[in-house]
Structure prediction request, 216 residues.
Amino acid sequence: MSRTRTALALGTAAAGAIALASITASAAPAPLAGSTTVTPAGHDFKAVLSGKATLKAGSVTVTCTVSVSTGTVPAAPGNSNPAGPVSSPISPPTYSSCTSSMPGVTPTVTTSGAWAVSMQDGSPITATMTVPTGGLVLKTTGLASCTVTAAPTAPASVAGAWANGSPSSLTFTNASVPVKVTGGFGCPTSATASVFNAVYKVSDVTDPAQDITVGP
Prediction:
């Protein structure tokens, strides 16, 4: 066989192997999510910030020491999902007692829209907070007038972790949140994402003697 025909044959065989590998990879099924049950079904809950929450965009960090949100565990059977997470609508979290890393600047945070949190049982138990489009707006006044809008073009999913306890906790560690920053001098207008850190203690409001728990 000539060198040209040999090269052609090898090239054809390689292309066939790549195509077969591609088909095999694309045919592999995605892993299924496990079952999740949140209890007690139908109970109201309150999430209260423990410590401080920080939102960092560019070189600017805003720290808030007060934040609260409320919600309700879905009534049965909606509190259980045999193949995925359980989602609950929550009130837009309030943020107050906020300070900025920029001297001479006062931040104010407002929230609105349809927020939600979903829990997926596993090791660890994961949680996802949904921020609606434009659902959080941070404005600064003073030496720098900036506006930071979270989820500026579409709802955003913020990844967190859940831990059962008395009370249970919802933790966000270096969670990425898409943002748009506008303003003049001193504003981090080039930032397209912020980093969010916070720990919330979640308690049962309907029956304080019980705990909000996530299981299979």
Q: What stands out?
A: The chain is about 10% helix and 50% strand.
